[in-house]
Amino acid sequence: MLFFQMLEKTEMKFDPEEVIEEFEALTKEAGKVQQETLKKILEENGGTAYLQQWGLNGRTDLESFKACVPLVTHKDLEPYIQRIADGDLSPVLTGKPITTISLSSGTTQGKPKFVPFNDELMESTMQMFKTSFAFRNREFPIENGKALQFIYSSKQFKTKGGLAAGTATTNVYRNAHFKKTMKAMQTPCCSPDEVIFGPDFHQSLYCHLLCGLIFRDEVQVISSTFAHSIVHAFRTFEQVWEELVADIREGVLSSRVTVPSMRSAMLKLLKPDPEQADTIYNKRSGLSNWYGLIPGLFPNARYIYGIMTGSMEPYLKKLRHYAGELPLLSADYGSSEGWIGANVNPKLPPELVTYAVLPNIGYFEFIPLRGNLDGLEPTPVGLAEVKLGEEYEIVVTNFAGLYRYRLSDVVKIKGFHNATPELQFICRRNLLLSINIDKNTEKDLQLSVEAAARLLIDEKLEVVDFTSHVNVATDPGHYVVFWELSGEGSDETLQECCNCLDKSFVDAGYVGSRKTNVIGALELRVVKRGTFHKILDHFVELGGAVSQFKTPRCVGPNNSRLLQLLYYDAVKSYFSTAYC
């Protein structure tokens, strides 16, 4: 089929203009492509145990699919995925055997989910990378450069049934297609595999920074999966920069790198270079409060690239500080379950970025968030039926065994690229602070923190990171917000911040519940410096990849280890007097 040719060209020579032409062809007939995509998914997987139980009986039309197959969450599919992980070789969810399992980040509830991963998902990943790169390269052309990529692989392990399991990012980085595609796009990673796949995150990060400095004149892109990883890397640079300069000056690797394979790989790259060391030292010395650090270190960098929406937005202020005038480009929209849309308008700032849905990588439905008058949940609509300005929850059917799978992501239709919608990510639907009739999302929390953080400016402080928790062990229950600060704030200012946080939650259910004391006074807990680094370390200890780490914005009650860490590291506590 014409519309699937794009997926079959992964290993061919990369031509950005050809990729854009194919994307334009796909999106001009997005509705038709969607129907063909669903038909192809059902033809390939109609004989699976999962689809047969719903009585499709080989039918591949949209009407039968929607009438027979129910909307599901991960919990509904968990028993089927577990069967696959345990070694069931029969066609459970897909016609072809699943050989790899992806782990979701698991940063909210403390437990990662198993998600099927197969060649088709890898193909769509490469299609997504190529599509967005083609549009980026039109605006910010790069040629024969290198990318300083802060990417890290977690350990892969074998499931009970012998399947390889690892984070989605690890499964991508370990795939041969990834390196070939990066090379074809003329942005190979400047770090060797021994660094990317190193067993110690802290040593890998140090080596990534060192590789970037060794190849500083060739680096054209600075990237990571998430903005948080880039900010974390340059916060670390502030601490270790003199050691890095010494390594380059002497051509001797720091003793902090102890992993033999990593040391061996780095020593092959490292040669004494006093002149380069002096240049880096002088660049650093000429900076004011680290502003413009990234372009100062990497004079030929064109842009900084990574996911910068949703839970990554709070890091944009610090990232812009490091970036100076260098553009921030937000990466594409997807999840451990698969990809959805590409950023084809790279000049838009991260706060306004939209994602054009690729209509041939899965079948997409959208549940309107405006409820029916009868109180029932609205019927999902197809990609060609969404309306401008409306908000929806996304439902995915893909080639890796997910059928009418609710992602719990809320998006807004901001426009159309030809006939395919351009989505703006709004929030995760299930990340709610709620005690009574109040409903506050991750975005509401972020806005409250931003408002309160402005009160810290006079004391030259900033919020390094934050999270929250609903404490229902007290009566009445109340919200707890945890802050890590860049320095020590006065009690008076932090009490004002606490009151501001409380008043900035403007949800009517919250305000009414606070006024009647059905919800107690908001509590602000200030934690020790380095607490959120411990959260990252805890995540890595559980087998997660740093590349996939997202600070949980709301820590659930089941995540007892994280709650214990946050409460133990609290050094100050304030209760709001805003409603007294």
TrEMBL record:
Annotated GH3 middle domain residues: 355-428
Ranges of residues in domain GH3 C-terminal: 443-556
Organism superkingdom: Eukaryota
MF terms (GO), sorted A to Z: acid-amino acid ligase activity
Keywords: Ligase
A GO CC term assigned to this protein in UniProt: cytoplasm
Family: Belongs to the IAA-amido conjugating enzyme family.
PANTHER family in UniProt: GH3 DOMAIN-CONTAINING PROTEIN (PTHR31901), JASMONIC ACID-AMIDO SYNTHETASE JAR1-LIKE (PTHR31901:SF53)
Name of the protein described by the UniProt record: Jasmonic acid-amido synthetase JAR1
